[in-house]
Amino acid sequence: MNPAINRIGSVTESLSLPRLVATTREIAAADALPFADPASPLAWTRKGDGLVAAGPDLLHIDVAEEGRIGAIADLWRAISQATDVDDEVRIPGTGLVGFGALAFDDTSAAPSTLIVPTTVLGRRGDRAWITRIRIADRPDELPAAVRIPLGPSWSATLGPGAMDPEAHDAAVRDALAAIESGEIGKVVIARDLAGTVPAQADLRRLVSSLASEYPDTWTYAVDGLIGASPETLVTVHGGEVSARVLAGTRPRGANVSEDDSVPFELSTSDKDRAEHAFAVDSVLDALRPHTSELTAAGDPFTLELPNLWHLATDVRGTLNDGASALDMVRAMHPTAAVAGTPTDRALDVIRRIEPFDRGRYAGPVGWIDGDGDGEWAIALRGAQFAPVADGAATRAVTAHAGGGIVRGSVPEAELLETRVKFRPIVDALA
User: Fold this and answer.
1) How many domains does the chain have?
2) Do residues 85 and 95 touch, judged by C-beta distance below 8 A?
3) C-alpha span between 414 and 410 (Å, rounded)
4) Which CATH number do you get for residue 85?
5) Which residues are catalytic?
6) Model pLDDT for residues 169-216, shown as the tens digit of each residue
């Protein structure tokens, strides 16, 4: 099969979309991950449910200029309208499905990417299905889904990237100066780790490890971006929209007694509650124009994860304008939880202080179906794997972790927070 690959460098560039056919049938539940590509798995899982792609990409769309999320949302609407769907299951994630990994910043050199695979294996509760997607006039070119044995175990070599601990200390102090001057109220400053993995590393092992160790998070793998995010950016199902806001963090205690005190300390911390309030307000402001009903708990709850505690607030609403999941991603990203507030000024500070392009770190990652339903998380606790160069023995990998800086933040504590946030991906890579 010669799959149709469309790469778009400009949102103004014309695109001739092929007519597609998506067929979904119910199947017996089974482990879908062995059907994914070892070098570039395409997966979205949580608590055993999710979607895994098999076979080559049918459409691979890159957009790399300002307004890219809106361009992808419009493109997806056009792709959906150009697809004939035969779906016997009819639940979110069946029929036509696209996977996306979007850049954090419109000025990023990294593209925002949408992928339509030829085959998707899905599971939700006690139901499982397979979706085959093909170009309408090429009925004989659809490849079979093939189970690929897992490759050998491997590990990564990681070290400081462009921002080492000393540079991070200076960056936090610069951020505090911007806050004290009144330029911003909050800004999220990240640092990076860089390294390599063997060129032939089976990245499905990383996906499996993260899914096993962090079952309550969204384990994602899209276009070389792999991680386990605890933070839902937005979910759209049947006209309902929801989001989980995480901001305010503490590491787990060293023992049971110490750990028992952490939630109280976190929930009564003025600094962490202020950081969390900025994040919740930014989500509510983004959702209000699209909803007729919108609710959020008055007080955040403490969310327990294997390596840390978060302050968390769930937000729910009813859409009143027919917005798709990608439309809502466009409306909500970036939130104060990963950028700061006011958003535009926080982005300017991030560009000024951070010595790297974040790429897709802290950008939206997830999936959307032909009805506009979808699940999108913020790409946290993960790493980006570069393509393998011809003849190379290794493959580059970069990971990021950050923390929200508000008045009262302490550089040493912020560095510790990034170390705790690096743990899921660093441990899995090791």
Assistant:
1) 1
2) yes
3) 6
4) 3.60.120.10
5) 186, 231
6) 999 999 999 999 999 999 999 999 999 999 999 999 999 999 999 999
